[in-house]
Amino acid sequence: MSKYYLGIDLGSTTSKAVIINEQDEIIGRGITNTRANYSVAADIARMEAIYNARFFILKKNLANEIAAKPQYKKYLSDLESVFQYEQFKVRIDKLGDELLKTCYNYFDGERRQTMVDHLRIIRRAIKPKIKHQYIYQNLGAQNQFFRDIVSEKYNEEVSKFDISLFEPLMTIWDKSITAAENEVVQFDFESLIKEAMDLLKEKYDNLPEQSENIPIESERNFDAEMYLLKGEFNSVSESLRDRIDEVARLEFNIENMTGTGYGRALLPFPQDCIRSEILCHAFGAHAIFPNTRTVLDIGGQDTKAIQVDKYGLVTSFQMNDRCAAGCGRYLGYIADEMSISLNELGPLAMKAEKEVTICSTCTVFAGAELRELTNMGESRPDILGGLHKAIIMRAMSLIARSGGVFNEFTFTGGVARNQAVIKYLTQLVKANYGDNIIINIHTDSIFMGALGGAMFARRNINVDLPSAKKTTA
Amino acid sequence: MSNPKDAIKEKSMVIQKEMLANLFTELSTAKENGKKVVYTFVPGNLTELILALDMLPVYPEINALQSGMRKRSGSYIKDAEKLGFSEDVCTYVKCDIGMMLNGNIGPTGEKLPDPDLLLLSYTGCFTFLKWFENLERLYPGVEIAMLHTPYQEDGVITDDQINYMVKQLKEEVIPKMEKVAGKKLDYDRLEKMLGNAAKAEELWVKVLETAKHRPSPIDSYFAGVYYMGPLNTAFRGTEEAVSYYEELYKEVNERMEQNLCPVTPEGEMKEEKFRLVVEGPPNWTNFREFWKIFYDMGAVIVASTYTKVGGLYDQGFRHDPLKPLETLSRYCMGCYTNLNLPQRVDLIEHYIKEYKADGFLINSIKSCNSFSAGQLLMMREIEQRCEVPVGFIESDLVDPRYFSYANIKNRLESYFQMLEQRKIIMSQEEAHV
Predict the structure, then answer these.
(1) ipTM, 2 decimals?
(2) In chain B, which residues have pLDDT < 50?
């Protein structure tokens, strides 16, 4: 039987899980927002990674079919997206119950009835919308968290009502989402995938014969693959049924696991399975890019500059764990201040024609500076360019403290997804340490810590410390 | 502590406690008994001169660290800040000023006497100069003596520097001290005290060197700061200090012969897992918590630079009764913070090799420029020269606002795991070869 290894990185902003096989190959990834209840966040990330791993194995088993027939590929990617909706559906129902419960606790009489009526309208509207987006608009591929998706839809609906309802409805939301989010929902992969297959069948059965007949214009330019699949849906579906069943019933044997990240001490793991995120990030980065000597990790609430040797072992590190300026949260705060989403920050900053100088010593004051600069007529892209540069300048000083950049240089953490951050980092690293520095950034950069953890788990390098013995004895 | 063996171990502690209690009682009754009081600092102190003139020394930075350990420093610092001292001023200074504003009650609960003389014998720390300027304002009319200590810029102590210091001692410092004491310095007495100092220093070095043994019977940092007390403060040159170090060495030596690990506040360590060299003073406000992170992980500090602030005896210096003023001058110039950066790096390298350390750790103190300036450079140099994992944590002397337990624990845990992994991977690599 194949053996798998799990790494969980419980960060301050997101919780990540990675599953690897015996060849250190990533076969499953899971990510969710970190919430008040750490173990729920860890559980969700872990479950997601296991589901993701099952799909990975399924695709691997079907590699020949997928290569030969695009309709197989389409079926599987559709199935994965619908599968995600099936999980969300359960959570949306839970959230709906929670919203009503909160409403009953906080309001009474006529006011309660008004709220309940409106909540019903919201509920009726949200679910089909999300379902539609999952089935037709590939929402599953965007890797968004449940909280973000439902909150966007909820806000949309609330904005349609009278303004006087805004505050009470938002209060109900705030009180309900945390409870809904912190509840562990147990899913059964086998029955969930069956439901997903049925839903997919429903989709293709109801799909108009010609794409021109699709009612919404924007959805009309659907790929040819979809119609290729529609023609053969039943035969594809039937021929895959056994293979899917096989993977669904596969006993998933997690041989060993390691927990890391700032919340690692709170993970329900034995103490000898807990490891510092500094070591995990370095180990993960070094595994992907074996020539790595310097690692920069910009996470949500800390930044680390790490020096590693040829074995991937940390020789020294410097940390900014006291100040939000220079961490991912700095960008999150700025996005909030500008009322745009975190994902929009980078692309907007890429449009900068110059970088406005912004003081990077304090996140909150940078927000104030941003308003001031806007009033002075500076353009948003130029201000954002300056803000992105500021965060990198902070990181550069941390790198200098840790000893500088040695070839090769690997950048990890959630912030490594931001194009503008990469632009300024590349600029400044090359300017300070020379053009010959090779800069590595992996698409899985946010998972490096979890990957390192999983790799430690595979190597079964236990933490053999007296304190660990004391508590486990 | 019902175990009789434990009681024996702690005899030296009992002796030290008695010594300190007697000193503070003597200080509290100094004015009634007509004893003159000298405020002075630990690095480069002239304790033998003070004692030979029958005066009593008070060390403001020791009071500050004691206040830190007794959780009083936070409010003292706030009181000093109310007076206008900036956030960036050394917290020893602010704690001391705050303590004076609050009645100058010492660690034993007895009031400390006002100074008759402010004796600044070490100028390597610029803050000391400013500290006494402030004390002069708090005690108008107090006598002041200053001994200018040249910094070891070139890494050596030259004859010119010694002559310069001896001249200051002869012409300014000793006359001023004699004036305050109301008597002439008895050189025979001074020489006898310097002889006692050398004896205690010899024993202290023996104590420190037991840490070369595996396992080390002492923690040279967390326990070292207690052990160094008598020699660094009011007792150097006394018979009492000599007997204290005789007792201490006896105890430590016994522990070494029995292969025992250091004693911690929670009892004896069971296993020595990591041997470390530490640079920088400890944090005093959370001293116990800080220490616990180390002994819980099985980490023992086998050598530290902080325990050399009162003199680098392990590098051969001894007070020499035959050359009293010259030896005092050499002593002032030889304390750890008066070394230049290359000397400090050499010393640390020597410790790492001599004491077979697994790693090097810096506790960088926000308050203390004398220690902290240049530490990152030192760290990098050590990393390259010794190829041991290096760690860097940040805290403060006595300002509780700058001790973040979670951050420090997180960094130390990572550091210990670094050491652990290195051991495992290196042994695997060796096995492959």
Answers:
(1) 0.80
(2) 1-8
Query: Structural domain tally of chain A?
Result: 2
B170-223 pLDDT, tens digit each: 999 999 999 999 999 999 999 999 999 999 999 999 999 999 999 999 999 999
Same domain flag for A241 and A349: no
Tens of pLDDT along A319-344?
887 777 778 888 888 888 888 888 88
Bridge partners for A412 per DSSP: A297
Which of B270, B380, B418 is the closest to A466 by Cβ?
B270
DSSP A444: T
| Confidence at residue B3, expressed as pLDDT on a 0 to 100 scale | 46
d(CA A407, CA A289): 11
Size of interface A-B (CB pairs under 8 A): 71
pTM, to two decimals: 0.85
C-alpha to C-alpha distance for A468 and A274, rounded to whole angstroms: 10
For residue A360, what pLDDT is reported? 64
- B111-142: pLDDT as tens digits: 999 999 999 998 888 899 999 999 999 999 99
Chain B residues near residue A324 by CB distance under 8 angstroms? none
Q: Is any Cβ of chain B less than 8 angstroms from the Cβ of A323? A: no
Instruction: Give residue A388's domain range.
Output: 290-441
- Which CATH number fits the domain that encloses residue A370? 3.30.420.40
Q: Is the pLDDT of residue A212 over 70?
A: no
pLDDT category at A470 given cuts 50, 70, 90 is very low
Residues A306 and A187 in one domain: no
Residue A169 in any domain: the answer is: yes
For A192-197, which contacts have Cβ atoms below 8 Å and span 24 or more sequence positions? Answer: A192/A83, A192/A86, A192/A87, A193/A79, A193/A83, A193/A244, A193/A248, A195/A86, A196/A79, A196/A82, A196/A83, A196/A85, A196/A86, A197/A79, A197/A237, A197/A241, A197/A244
Judged by a CB distance cut-off of 8 A, whether residue A317 touches chain B is yes
- CA-based nearest residue to B50, from B307, B328, B244, B327: B328
**Residue A43, in any domain of the structure:** no
* A245 shares a domain with A313: no
Chain B residues with CB under 8 Å of a chain A CB are 270-271, 273, 296-298, 376, 379-380, 383, 389-392, 404, 407, 410-411, 413-414, 416-418, 420-422, 424-425, 429
Look up residue B159 and give its two tokens: 């004859």
Domains of chain B: 25-186 (3.40.50.11890), 262-432 (3.40.50.11900)
Q: Which residues of A touch B292 (CB under 8 A)?
A: none
Say whether B414 and A464 touch across the interface (CB within 8 A). Answer: no
Per CB-CB distance under 8 Å, the chain A contacts of B424 are 461
Do A230 and A298 lie in a common domain? no
